[in-house]
Design goal:
By secondary structure, the protein is mostly beta strands. The protein has one helix at 30-36; strands at residues 12-17, 20-25, 43-44, 51-52, 65-68, 71-75, 86-88, 90-91. Bound molecules: FE2/S2 (inorganic) cluster.
């Protein structure tokens, strides 16, 4: 879906997603790195388990919530990927009470 433009000065950054070794470019956000690696979704919704992926890429929509180095609810589009980072798909809404985890009151 996404294709990288040539970045001759970019340094390779190595991280894992769901235990899989991936390579990104220095300066990539975690969300951009995952999209560039062809990862289809980075979280599931709390109620229905629907797959979601980053959308706005600028910190507004919260569709990119993800677990980074064991910390849930990080905005992947606002965190720069680093060597050795461990990234996991966020399942539901960890740390939120059931009533707050509701999707838009549905
Ligand atoms: S992609 Fe919208 S807040 Fe991160």
């Amino acid at each position: 879906m996404f294709r990288r433009l040539p970045e001759p000065r970019a340094r390779a950054v190595h991280f894992t997603f769901e235990g899989e070794a991936l390579t990104a470019h220095s300066g990539d956000s975690v969300a951009a790195a995952l999209l560039g690696a062809g990862i289809g979704h980075s979280r599931t919704t709390p109620r229905s388990g629907t797959a979601r992926a980053p959308y706005c890429m600028m910190g507004v929509c919260f569709e990119c919530l993800i677990e980074i180095d064991g910390v849930a609810n990080r905005q992947g589009c606002l965190v720069e990927v680093r060597d050795g980072m461990t990234v996991r798909r966020q399942q539901g809404a960890p740390g939120l009470p059931e009533d707050l985890a509701d999707e838009g009151g549905k």
